[in-house]
Amino acid sequence: MTTLSHSYKFCFGPWNISEGADPYGPPTRPAQSFDWKLAQLKQLGFDAMMFHDDDAVPDIDNKSPQQMVKEAKELGKKLADAGIAAEMVAPRLWFSPMTIDGAYTSNDPKARQYAIERSLKCIDIAQVLKTKLIVLWLAREGTYLRESKNGRRSTEYLVAAIDKMLAHDKKVRIAIEPKPNEPMDVAYIPTIGHAIALGYQTRDPKRVGALIESAHAILAGLDPADEIDFAMSFGKLWSLHLNDQNGLKFDQDKPFGSNNLRLAFNQVRALERSRYGAHGEYVAFDVHPFRATKEAHTLDHLANSRRTFLRLLEKARAFDDAAAQKLVADRNYQALDQMVLEHLMGK
Asked: What number is the average pLDDT over the span 86-94?
């Protein structure tokens, strides 16, 4: 059995309490205010909140720098009063009319400049909220048509944009969140290996790492636990979005462990063996309520994800590693397979 005993800190974002809208239908629950969401966070046992830049400063493109800082300071006071930290801030570049054909990799130089300027604003907000972690989900950095963009040139654009962010704040840390598809047909940075490789091309690779999302790894046909182990072997896993996914379809953001409990168990084991969280990293649940969820149950997906993680943490720490290694040495994988199943079933 493992003897690791470090604790974990948890967070989620305002968007994780969603209203049930999807591309095929309208909302199914009323919207809740940010203040209501913030009040629920601590009650559910969470320690921090994730932010997009326009979660922190709504309508950011139409605010002056002075207004932006003022509103960010007001948010910072709310967080401090609630005893909640800001885990990270991410520029939401995929909503703007300027980024229809990409943000950092757009064929339009004005769009690329907009994306960089917006990202620098995001860093300024993060400074006010006392976090140094900037997350880049490269949502529209890809193509619908291969002939429309040059992949090498797009990689160079991405490196140039990150370099400008690193120069803007000498202490900022950039975590790239890869996803293989959606909203783009095919993305340029689809896996954690791509994200880490891109970081090594920048002006300061020590300040460029990665964020893994379970569902995104599954959408790439990969095992999230393997992606976690890979990133941790480089010391590059700086944030984490745990959730679940039913196969290679749209990004579902199901509650952690909802679809594949064994896959979830192995993610927790991977985090444990590399002591993720021992340096202050958070476990975030990027999950959404099922569309059919009633308003009265609108927080259950978050509470359940945290509960599942903690139960699987108990399972991971109680797993008889010595017995498992004997089976490995004997190449008795049938017995190892059954050992894992019976451990998860409580036998």
From this structure: 98
